[in-house]
Amino acid sequence: MKKQYWFVIITYIAMQLSSLVGVPLLAHSGFINASNKEVAFSIASGYWAVISFSIALFFVLYFMKEDMKYSYDRHQASIGTSIFWAIGGFLLALFAQGIAANIEVHLFGVEMGSENTRRIVEMVKLTPALMLVTSIVGPILEEIIFRKIIFGTLYEKYNFLLSALVSSLLFAVVHLEFEHLLLYATMGFVFAFLYVKTKRILVPIVAHVLMNTFVVAIQTLFAEEIEKMMREAEQMQFVIWRLFS
């Protein structure tokens, strides 16, 4: 693996671990004005994510500048084809995520919904600037690390299936929702496919940005409607159960 790749990975790990110190310091700094300690830590977590992710992105792009400069591949997809796959990849990721979610629910008994997403949505409501991290900065960092570096390095030596499996599982693990490993790994496979298909890391980045923006926007703007629909679905399931029991 190239030396600059290790710098990128170390930067990403340091960014993740920095919250252990940064969030408590920010919460007790007097900068956060909140009604209670729990809310103060939530707001501090949001602001620290904006700060740490932004700094990490700056360093990652700096470390990757030479690599990006000389990464041209004559087999790269055209701009028009890349746009098609970026948008199509977003739709494909949604479709794949839907299949994975149904498998988790009906085959493994995992509850529908993501605690990680719910927590992020609550933090976005308290710290709107966090939307930039969840929708743009986060996907850029994750695609550079998990697709460009990890998948790309493995793919030089191994086949697509093994390379995508390893990188996608790592991608899933860092989200710390082990009950949804299949969900995140499926998305990782889609983004790896987009990278191989177009030879442009920007394509899975755009698809990932669209995916995150869509999910957070839907759950932020239409949270009440979604909750109402879920209650109605639960009531309908109860009625059906009573009819056939």
Count of domains: 2
Number of strands: 0
Q: Can you summarize the main beta sheet?
A: none
Helix and strand composition category: mainly alpha
In angstroms, what separates the terminal alpha carbons? Answer: 60 Å
Unreliable parts: 241-245
Separate helix tally: 9
What is the CA-based Rg, rounded? 20 Å
User: Strand content of the residues, in percent?
Assistant: under 5%
The backbone outline, from C-alpha atoms, is: globular
How much helix is in the residues? Answer: over 70%
Mean pLDDT metric: 85
The ordered H/E elements are HHHHHHHHH
GO molecular function: endopeptidase activity
Domain CAAX prenyl protease 2/Lysostaphin resistance protein A-like: 128-214
Organism: Anoxybacillus tengchongensis
Protein name: CAAX prenyl protease 2/Lysostaphin resistance protein A-like domain-containing protein
